[in-house]
Amino acid sequence: MAIDIQRNREPVAGDTPRVTSAVWGGLFILGLLMTVLGIVALGTAFLASLVSAIFFGAMLAVMGISEIVAGFRVRKSGGPFWLYLLGGILSTVVGLFVLVYPAAGLAALTLMLAGYFFASGLFHAITSVVDRYPRWGWDFAYGAISIFLGVVVMAQWPVSAVWLVGTLVGIGILFRGLALMAGSLSVRRALREIHAV
To answer: What angle do CA 62, 63, 65 make, to 5 degrees?
Structure first.
């Protein structure tokens, strides 16, 4: 009968930092790259807006084609064929229109965002004043700023189409990158505390 004796390997002094940096380092680098990309997008807002419109059009066209295919697949089982087919045709046509005329698609997207800001801000402002729940002032402030932003974007339209979408995309990427960097540094701190114990 063979007896298996396992020896506990002593940790090498350089192992722990290498493993620790592998856990948080990749996330930090990704966050740093996203932060730089967000700053670049903010610096070239028109280009970021145009790329966003083209991406939106492409995704809409792909979604429309997928919906048409799904319509023909559910037709055999008695599903909502016409709903899928007509919705898919509409999505495909709008997506192709945005791909062919990205500036017009960008202008339409800007109008939609202005309407969203205004309506969302109005909703938040009214409900916060009517309900007066704890810390309702923050919701009211958000609503007032959102209404102001919607009015400004609408008043400057179509010029606002040049900067709005790219600026929003740049801000989103920038804050996502900063959040990833902050999260990775929190992981690093927690791992150091674990190794210190």
So the answer is: 65
Task: Indicate the pTM of the whole model.
Answer: 0.60
Q: What are phi and psi of 89, to 5 degrees?
A: -65, -45
Give the gyration radius of the chain's Cα atoms: 25
Q: What is the Cα–Cα distance from 3 to 163, expressed in whole angstroms?
A: 73
Would you call 2 helix, strand, or coil by DSSP? coil
Measured on CA atoms in the order 168, 54, 28, 19, is the torsion positive or negative? positive
Token pair 């192992």 is found at: 15
59 φ/ψ sector (left φ>0, alpha ψ -120 to 50, else beta): alpha
Residue 62: per-residue pLDDT: 92
pLDDT, tens digit (0-9, with 9 covering 90-100), for 42-53 = 888 888 888 888
Mark out the alpha helices in 44-159 (DSSP H runs).
45-75, 81-100, 102-131, 136-155
Other beta carbons within 10 angstroms of residue 162's beta carbon come to: 18
Question: What is the rounded distance in angstroms from the CA atom of residue 114 to the CA atom of residue 120?
Answer: 10
